[in-house]
Amino acid sequence: MTTGMFALRDVAVRRSGTPVLARISAEMAGGQVVALIGPNGAGKSTLLAAVAGLLPCSGTMTWCGKRPHFSVLAYMPQSAEITSGLSVMEAVLLGRHDCLGWHVKPADLDAAGVALASLGLERLAHRRLDSLSGGQRQLVLLAQRFVRRPQLLLLDESTSALDLRHQMTVLQHLRNYVAETGALVVMAMHDLNLAACHADTVMMLAHGTLAAFGPCKEVLTEARLRDAFGIEADVMADKYGRPIILPRAAAGKAAVA
Amino acid sequence: MDIHGGYRRGILRKSVMLASACMALLALVLLDLANGPSGMPLASVWQAVLAGPYGEDRAAAAIVWQLRLPQTFMGVIVGSCLGLAGLQMQTILDNPLASPFTLGFSAAAGFGAALAIMFGQLLPLPEFFVVPICAFAMTLIATGLVYGVARLRGATPEILVLSGIAVLFFFQALQSLLQFLASPEVLQQIVFWLFGSLLKATWTSVGVSFAILLAALPFVASNVWSLTALRLGDRTAESLGLRVDALRQRSFLLVAVLTAAAVCFVGTIGFVGLIAPHVARSFVGEDHRFALPASAVSGALILIAASVFGKIISPGAAIPVGIITAVAGVPMLFLVIARRGKGRST
Q1: Is a pLDDT exceeding 90 seen at residue A144?
Q2: What is the pTM of this model?
Q3: Which chain B residue is nearest to residue A112, measuring alpha carbons?
């Protein structure tokens, strides 16, 4: 298995003339999960959409030396509304819409079946999307990304509608997937403890700039959380040495008893 | 759970539905051929068909080969064109009420036809072709106008619908102006064209419309997976690497060509493009490999059923199908609204 390298060089995005991301530079090797964290409006979604090529940006970004394209990447945006009457199986197959023929090949059905099974969705395979709960739809959209077998997987708060068990299932599956394929997963998330548990590297954005980048233990510190999120928090270590964040209060305000 | 088996069974069920719809269409086509002002029964029609256009029974040959066959074939072609155009329109605009009729394409065709009826003699073209050519051209102009105006604001589905409604009112107003200015004889011709009737069909018009439909089919077919992906919404489709704007532009042009092919010879026929996609989706779902052919067959079924109904309730003089589809379309639209109200996606 060979792992690629994802490199960002001076990536900047402007919206209506206002800079929303400024000079982001970082290098990430494949075979790991990178948690993209930061307060609301820090530019997490903007960065992921720019990498996916859906927003114009300056600077360069490369995966294995080339501009990432949908042939190698999969991107799941934040809170995509789906009201379609397609079945779950049909929706997951659409993850491969660009290579499906009029007759769907057994290999495509196999891939869809594996993607559904990996997230425990086999029982929903023939249900209509519009009969599912928000969390179930989010799982279907995740399966739709996995069916592409991407080398670079960009997820924007893709577990936000899931209960704790399903969050753990998805994050564990992501870990298995990167270990098995050498892919790189970049996942925007708000739950810092989940990030600390499941990510190898943390990329912290604040005010459209890169505030910190590195292993969880180095990035998730009390000082950095205060600067980036404006919170007072105690950062401890669990029995595996991973950080545990216990927020106490917004910085500058009275601590909660 | 057998995921493959379940999927294959779903495909089989949809194929059976589609085949059943084709059989129903065939039955209706025979019924349509068997009915007409002359009262010629199906057996005689069949004999005349076998005898050919120059058969010994000149009257029967003329009735069958010059009137019934072209009218019925035209009904199938026009219904198919409107069904295909309607489904694509509803998909790209993510709007169950979108159709070539509601977005002003038919009104533009009507204005083009009225213009040709009033001033066509000034054009250096054969009289038979002036009206269809003007109707066809005006439909394409309306499409350009809708898309051009919408593009100024990003060509989102909402802007395209608003732009289409503006164009609908614009061409209806121009149509009314021409009717106001027309002499009583010309006004009568314009009104007859606007009714939308298969009586205008000839083998030439059948050939031209069929050729346009055939030419459009490969382009429509190449979009089936993209259109199905668009049913997941713009954001999801884009995130799967689909170029939504380009797809919308391509499909909009195809809708315009199919609508123009449908209405330029027979006149304005409302509601078929609106209702057929709903009928198709309710039977075969939203996989456009099945929904598109099902919508075409549903459109043809609705139009031929309207033709048969018109001949039965008024045996002496068939009521124009445009009037019947408009009248029958209203309760069908209520049905669609009621189903949506119950929370079912249509």
Answers
A1: yes
A2: 0.89
A3: B3
